[in-house]
Amino acid sequence: MVKLRATRKPSKGNTVAGTHDNCDECPDCPDLLLLRCAAADKRIAIAFYLEAARTTCMPQLFLGVAEDEMRHYVEIMREISRLDPVQAEKLRNADLGMLLMTRPMVKPKTKAAIVKEVETADAPIVLPDREDMPTVHILTKALAGEFEATNKYQRFMNEAETREVKRLFCKLMNDEKEHIAQFTAALFELTHEPLPPE
Questions:
Q1: 105 in Cβ contact with 198 (< 8 Å)
Q2: Of 50, 118, 158, 193, whose CB neighbour count within 10 A is largest?
Q3: pTM (predicted TM-score)
Q4: What is the DSSP annotation of 47-116?
């Protein structure tokens, strides 16, 4: 049985008192709405800057900015995973553990890690192949759409009056989270993310 948390006073007549309880299955933290919007914006920016790095005479400039945006995306997704256990589970199932807050953002460097950093410091950054860029753009648009849909269903769930409608929007919201994980995993294959830590 899905338990829901009331986020506003129920209107008279349509809601049975006491039907909303706190639950992790349908997280409704308002910060998630902001974080998902930010994540969608980051993916759009990453695709744009990768395309610019491929098609302009200033590839290093745009690639450097794309790298910053890629790191920002990881930071945002880690915060989403902290606030949304359902999204964290979907990311874990898609083998995207690096996006979970359970992993430290910065961990102490071992001697082996420092040596590896020095060896790879001059390694060239790998851009997506030119023929993969249309797929990067389509996946980016799809991922941004999934973030927007998840936000919409969370808002609808919070505004719904009856338990059955809340449950439906909860289910739809959580289904979109699996698509977020799938599209992120597919994008990472093409864009060679996540980047190694700085």
A1: no
A2: 50
A3: 0.77
A4: HHHHHHHHHSS-HHHHHHHHHHHHHHHHHHHHHHHHH-HHHHHHHHHTT-GGGSTTS-SS-PPPHHHHHH
Distance CA 73, CA 38 (A): 8
Q: What digits encode the pLDDT tens for the residues 30-71?
A: 999 999 999 999 999 999 999 999 999 999 999 999 999 999
What is the C-alpha R_g of the chain? 20
Closest CA to 15 of 152, 159, 169: 159
What is the C-alpha separation between 120 and 118, in angstroms, rounded?
6
What pLDDT score was predicted for residue 1? 43
| Residue 55: C-alpha distances to residues 41, 52, 62, 189 (Å) | 21, 5, 10, 21
pLDDT tens digits for range 101-112 = 765 444 444 555
Q: Residue with structure tokens 């790298």?
A: 67
| Cβ neighbours for 132, distance < 8 A, ≥ 6 positions apart | 190
- Sign for the CA dihedral angle at 86, 35, 143, 52 comes to negative
Alpha carbon of 103 to those of 74, 99, 127, 177: distances in Å? 11, 8, 26, 20
In terms of Cβ atoms closer than 10 Å to its own Cβ (0-12, 13-18, 19+), residue 6 is middle
